[in-house]
Specification:
The protein is α+β, with helices and mostly antiparallel strands. Helix content is about 40%, strand content about 20%. It binds adenosine-5'-diphosphate and magnesium ion. Adenosine-5'-diphosphate (ADP) binds next to strand 1, strand 11 and strand 12.
């Protein structure tokens, strides 16, 4: 909770999410990031007279999938509206959006806070619309240059209820939404590149008050941390104003990341009149129950479902389950190991340990990890059967496999002679040797210095080149010394 002794904060978020469709929302122009400016345009995305938009089915599929994942009601009869305004990044002079008939209503997203507590954030709506082009302000000294490659790209806008009471809650929600869109493959979730953009509506109210205060809308935050910072700054700024008896008025502010503060862009008193009217060029879009069922059938497992499976069916701890569900690829890698071993805990440990540290130290993704999940399962099986122990597996077998990923675990063990000694006679010989070497220590042990056993085990381990099974060594030693 973000509050002081007088006020508390109230926040609602609006999130624009760029859909990962191949082509734009209403025409076949290709969608791609980083192409030469104005190469991904056509008369339709440039709004030439006489052109007609056409629905992109994949964009609708993605909006439905996101809605289903959030438990929303999916609208059957969808229409589109024109939001009219003049701005250089909007060549058509209007944006196609859904004003009165958002494709998704209601629904919610559960967030988990730092103290482990959970909270349900309610969604007002998710609607479909198209993106604008981009003004490039720093390429030319005198002019702003326009790139229309992004114009007409498919977006969904997620609008939440004013359910947040702190910047931390907003942060947790954004990371949950980012995780979700990435799982579903509907958006790359990259806030820095602007594929996921968030506006925060922030107001304050006296503690205990039921009514909401006047909200201020904050834009231009390109990271989750900045959203949290902007909210926290806005709370302080509004509290100071209220304390001075100044009236907080409805306005749009911009976040200055360098200063960590917000500044006014425009007052809502003189807000644009967008003159919304029904888009006459697009026929109504009817989403049948069959269509919804089709999308549902293609939906991957959601992070929450996997979390429950990991903790309940596979009996992993909460911590393991939350790390393993951080990304779909990590969860899938873990699940593939588990197709080849029943030792789920070991599979979790290898995924979160050796595999993840390789991924981190190579600054890459698990998709690029060279060893197959089946190979990791083979390592686990070799440990569980007593052929090798964990430290040999981690320090010798794993690095050797990384050097030659095509080899089998058993080959590495054989080549490097890594198998633990399973010959009792050979091990007994080492025990006898060591005891003969240290008669004074044996005497000391027998007179009560029982912790000398560790030293004996160490010596035997050394003689065996690390391959003496510690458990068996211990047994044989204890017997020999008694
Ligand atoms: P507008 O008419 O300005 O578009 P909406 O009612 O559509 O406002 O709400 C836009 C967003 O602002 C939603 O996310 C909503 O939850 C949030 N919101 C609405 N009222 C408040 C408030 N008083 N304080 C904070 N957020 C608010
Ligand atoms: Mg609104």
């Amino acid at each position: 909770m973000l509050k002081n002794d007088k006020y508390e904060v109230v926040i609602g978020l609006e999130i624009h999410s760029q859909l990962l469709t191949q082509s734009k929302a209403f025409c076949s122009d290709k969608v791609a990031f980083g192409e030469a400016p104005n190469t991904l345009v056509s008369p339709i995305s440039l709004g030439h007279p006489g052109t007609l938009p056409v629905h992109n089915k994949e964009a609708v599929n993605m909006a439905i999938m996101l809605g289903l994942a959030c438990g929303c009601d999916i609208r059957e009869y969808n229409t589109y509206d024109r939001k009219n305004y003049f701005y250089p990044d909007l060549p058509k002079g209007y944006q196609i959006t859904q004003m009165d008939t958002p494709i998704c209503n209601n629904g919610s997203v559960e967030i988990v806070l730092a103290d482990g507590s959970k909270k349900e954030i309610n969604l007002t709506r998710i609607h479909m619309e198209e993106d604008t082009g981009k003004g490039l302000h720093d390429l030319d000294i005198e002019n702003t240059l326009m790139d229309y490659n992004r114009a007409g790209t498919a977006l969904v806008e997620i609008v939440t209820e004013p359910d947040f009471r702190s910047g931390d809650e907003a942060y947790a929600f954004l990371s949950e939404v980012r995780k979700l869109v990435r799982y579903l493959g509907v958006c790359d979730g990259n806030m820095e590149e602007g594929s996921l953009r968030c506006d925060a509506n922030v107001s304050i109210r006296p503690l205990g008050a039921k009514e909401f205060g006047t909200k201020v809308e904050v834009k231009n935050m390109n990271s989750m941390t900045n959203v949290k910072k902007a909210i926290e700054h806005e709370f302080e700024r509004q509290c100071e104003m209220a304390d001075k008896g100044e009236e907080i008025f409805s306005e749009t502010r911009s976040f200055d990341a360098m200063k960590g503060t917000t500044f006014s862009m425009r007052s809502k008193e003189v807000a644009n009149d967008y003159r919304f009217f029904p888009e006459p060029d697009l026929p109504p879009l009817v989403v049948s129950q069959e269509w919804i069922a089709e999308v549902k059938a293609k939906m991957p497992a959601l992070p929450k479902e996997l979390y429950n499976k990991f903790t309940k069916e596979m009996e992993l701890g909460d911590y393991d389950a939350s790390i393993l569900t951080e990304s779909r690829e990590v969860a899938e890698y873990f699940l593939e190991i588990c197709e080849n071993t029943k030792n789920y805990k070991a599979a979790a440990n290898w995924t979160m340990g050796a595999v993840k540290s390789w991924v981190n130290s190579n600054a890459t993704h698990i998709e690029n990890f060279p060893l197959s999940p089946a190979t990791i399962a083979e390592i686990i099986a070799s440990i569980d059967s007593g052929t090798i122990n964990f430290s040999v597996a981690e320090q010798k077998v794993f690095p050797a496999l990384l050097d030659s990923p095509v080899k089998k675990v058993s080959e590495i063990i054989a080549e490097q002679n890594l198998a633990l000694m399973d010959d009792d006679d050979a091990l007994q010989k080492l025990v006898d040797e060591v005891l003969a070497e240290f008669p004074d220590k044996v005497a000391a042990y027998k007179s009560g210095k029982r912790n000398l056993i560790g030293m004996f085990i160490g010596q035997i381990k050394k003689k065996s080149g690390g391959k003496a099974d510690p458990k068996k060594t211990n047994q044989l030693l204890t017997k020999a010394l008694s």
